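Researcher: Structure prediction, please.
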Amino acid sequence: MRKGIGILITGIFLGFVLSLFVRSKENTVTDKAVIDDFKEHYKIYALPLPDSLFFAGERVPVEKPWVRERLDRELLINVYWQSNALLKFKRAKKYFPVFEPILRRYGIPDDFKYLAVAESNLEPVVSPAGAAGLWQLMKKTARKYGLIVNKEIDQRYDPWLATEAACFYLVEAKQQFGSWTLAAAAYNRGQQGLKKALDDQGATDYYDLYLNPETAKYIYRIAAIKQIMEHPQDYGFHFREADLYHLPPLRKLTVDSTVHSWPDFARRFGLTYGQLRYYNPFIRDYQWANKDGDTLFVYLPVR
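Model: Predicted structure follows.
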């Protein structure tokens, strides 16, 4: 009896192994067809570098080998991370109309909107170093330029006010260094850090400096983002207006007293707390004690 059962089990096992072998052979044929099709049709191209490139009206010396290599790296990273690049285009439609008139008002070249893209991908994020918002402002810098930064309210997340604070910094940096390119580098490295690098090396040009890795690729990242976003179809990006994000028309409401409950505040205007936070990401808690007697602008959708 046991011998018969053993023979039966052995037969079943051999049949199972044989079926696996047959399926494996079938899959091999299928896999080969897929691989052949992949080899024939899937292509990744090196990117042609622009012959001429400017940032903030200042020439990028693309003829220098180290400049070409670093620019090429940033172009490749930003083009071939397609999902991230598409999100840049989508968010830009939402935030560039906020940035552009403020940059003009402070006499700052329009190209600096791409600096914000390089800083945050236009997301209201916080960095490991503690920089926050679309413009990635540090707490000390934000407070220096009049922004409220505490556990309940953090105006680094206010697109309008954060843009103004960034403009104050950039105007100061331009006055110190005399170049918009160096002002942008100072935004990443800090004014003191950049000044020390210039003094130590006896240099006057960003493109001739030896810098820490992050600042060394910073201007190239901004320039690459500008090139891609100004010529999307040259890099294979296609989208419709309907694919992009938009800010709805908003009105500003002045709030200068304690808010005991932001959810209750939101309901007064027909909003949920989540909707209120979407339009006002600088609200960081359920209430605002306003111990210092500050004034806020709260943004509400026009109905």
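Model: Residues 1-43 form one domain.
Researcher: Thanks, that helps.
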